[in-house]
Structure formats: structure tokens, C-alpha cells
Amino acid sequence: MSRPEYIPLSDEAARAVAGAASRHAALIEDAFNVLIETPGGGVSINGDAKSRAGAKQVVAALAAQADSGREVSEADVRVAIGAARAGTGKSPAGGLPSSRRGQVAPRTPGQVRYLDSLNTCELVFGLGPAGTGKTFLAVAHGAGLLLRGEVDRLIVSRPAVEAGERLGFLPGDMNEKVDPYMAPVWEALTDIIGAEQLRRRREKGEIEVAPIAFLRGRTLSHAFIIIDEAQNTTRLQMKMVLTRIGEGSRMAVTGDPSQIDLVNAADSGLAHAVGLLEGVQGVGVNRFSVEDVVRHPMVERIVRAYDADAAKSGRAI
User: Fold this and answer.
1) Global pTM?
2) Residue 175 falls in which region: left (phi positive, over 0), alpha (psi -120 to 50) or beta
3) Which of 13, 33, 169, 239 fits a 20 to 30 Å CA distance from 229?
């Protein structure tokens, strides 16, 4: 190998790059065929010039994350490695706001690709099992656009399948009728922008609750629109929703095709829309797998078990 290259780091950054039992350093070594040592005050990278360049990019990304006060996990290391290999050199956060738990950032390669689509496409589909962050990241992205003034409104919608969309029979005003179905979105927004700012922006109409049925006939301009649990929209509802996009607007459509609650599962509009629109200019389709599950590890094991049973029986869940 060529002469080692030494990179000075803060103590916190050096510990983050090394990881517990040098696990993080080992991942970087395996990815770029380099040797990493931590002699104190930084890291030493030994390898050829190209390999060192990739490893240095990963070290720099992890050091910046650690120095900003954010915890560096093994998932963060893998994301940084993927970004270095792809030659993007982009910050994994992608302009996302900070939540109460720190800077929001993708934690898997699949999430990185999803955020890249949200940044570059007018219409983005996020498909996959529970716990993959598809809704949370869409909400964080939309909140970031709103806070930076890049859109005027953040509109969230989710089909109220259990109520048959006949929300008039439920007590309260429109927000009170729909909020039980929107709980995951509101929890994410509260985490990202805080309860008080969420309340103020809802009162000003900058963040809007919009049941699927209430979108009909509207043109949604200069807005970021999130359609959550989209597997429970019908084909007609999906066509109606997608054609609401107006000037200066973007849309994220999220859902799990294996969790359809409609009486007639074949009427689900999500898979139908993806089949029609995948490959169309301005449309991004991102499919998450169990490897992208970032909730409790038990969620990944549960998803794997159900997928295995579905594959064995030859039926969809």
C-alpha cells in the first residue's frame, strides 16, 4: 500500500468514525479496500489514491454529522458509503429540517434514493412496508419546503376507508372528523416543527387537512401534497387526486400495496397508477424493502415473516 494519509478530527468525530469495537471503521475498510487506524486526534487511511478518496469522503460526512451533535449509527455509515460510491458527495439530510430528536436524515440507501426523487421529481411514489420512513420523510421534506418559503401550503390527505368517506356522519368540524385518520402525519409534523407552530400554520391555512373526497374539483397550486395510505384509494380517486397538481406544486404518494383495506382489493388505485406512470417524465417511483425498516427491529422481523408466508402460499397479504 502507499503512504498513509492522516486526517485530524475532533475526539467526538474520531470515535464516531471508529464506532463501537471499530465496527464503523471495518465497514469503511471493507467498502474501499483501505486500512483505517485511529492513532489519536484523527484517523489514518492507508490505500491507493482512489480508495483513499472514497474513504475520506465517508470520514468527512460522518465527522460532520458527529460534530453537529448527531449520533452516528451503522445505518449512517452505510448511507455515507453508498453516497461516496455513487459519487454524489451530497449531504444525506438533503435540506431537511431538524426535529426534536435532531437533524432529520435518511438512514438507509433506499431512503437516500427516495429523498433524491422528492428533490428532483414533481410526482413521487413511495411504496413499501411499515417502518420504512416513507411518510415521515415526505412530511419532513414538505415541512422543509414550507419553512423555506418554496411552497405556500402543505396539504395532507389520507383515505378514511373505515368511514366510507362519509365523514359528515362523524361529530365535529372537518379537522375533527379527519384527524383520527391523519394521526401519523400530525405526529410527524409535531415532531418536526413543534405543536405551537403546527397550530398557527393550520389556522393560517398553510398546513391543511384535506380528505380525499374534499380534493375533488380543486387545483392545488404552489403546494406540496402528501397522499398517505394511498393503497386504500380507488382507481377513480387516484386519478382525481393526481390531476389536482397545479402550478408550482409537487406531490408525494405513499402506501403499502400489501395492506389494502378496500372491500375489492383489485380496485386499489396505487399499483394501477404506478403501472401506468412509471417511466413518465417527472415521475419517481421508489420501492422500499425490509432492509429499509428503521423502526424497532421487531418490525423488520414481522415483515419478513409475513412476506415469507405470502411467498409460500402464493397469495398477496
Assistant:
1) 0.66
2) alpha
3) 169
